[in-house]
Amino acid sequence: GAVVSQHPSRVICKSGTSVKIECRSLDFQATTMFWYRQFPKKSLMLMATSNEGSKATYEQGVEKDKFLINHASLTLSTLTVTSAHPEDSSFYICSAREGGGYNEQFFGPGTRLTVL
Amino acid sequence: GQNIDQPTEMTATEGAIVQINCTYQTSGFNGLFWYQQHAGEAPTFLSYNVLDGLEEKGRFSSFLSRSKGYSYLLLKELQMKDSASYLCAAFDSNYQLIWGAGTKLIIKP
Question: Testing the interface with A: which of B50, B96, B106 to mutate, by most A Cβ within 10 A?
């Protein structure tokens, strides 16, 4: 199957700082990328959907000024958590899809963010 | 509203068979996925059903009934490494994935 990487895998930061998470599709062109967060023992929660070259579409309740998403190329999307707070501590997972909506999403390995 | 229901937790014995059920209510339907997720890791794809019936893939099988809004994942010859959460997710009419909360499967020796 296709490979999606995320970097970093773990990050610890101080409250008030910004953290950038990268998501890359390694062997296919990701027309669409998705960003999820997952709290312990909870399911995935879609945060936003981004199409290459377009502004991201955020789900209701997700602050677009706090969670900045950039999908500048067909292989890279970034999520920046700005002015992080302890409640932003979570597991962030990206997934990528090539082409239309019926195509499978491939997941990255996830990034564990801890805000002190 | 859109909703996916699956049991929170199940326990089974190594070598046995377990069936994890999932019911869904979505605005439109374009198929159902099962994913496996080990603790601290991202989900990995197991199966995709869009037509009624049973799809078999090694020790894992997935069933779909569109008329009943129902699916199950069947795991045979359970191994300790199968201990994980199993996520059911459905594509709605816009191909947006609607996720269930996952079923934590505990395998005992």
Answer: B96
- Write out pLDDT tens, residues B33-70: 999 999 888 888 899 999 999 999 999 999 999 999 99
B30, B40 Cβ separation under 8 angstroms: no
Rounded-to-integer distance, Cα A30 and Cα A19, Å? 23
The SS3 assignment for A106 reads strand
Residue A81 to residue A39: CA distance in whole angstroms: 16
Q: Phi/psi of residue B82, each to 5°?
A: -80, -10
CA distance A10 to B89: 26
Number of residues in chain A:
116
- Give yes or no for A99 touching B (CB within 8 A): no
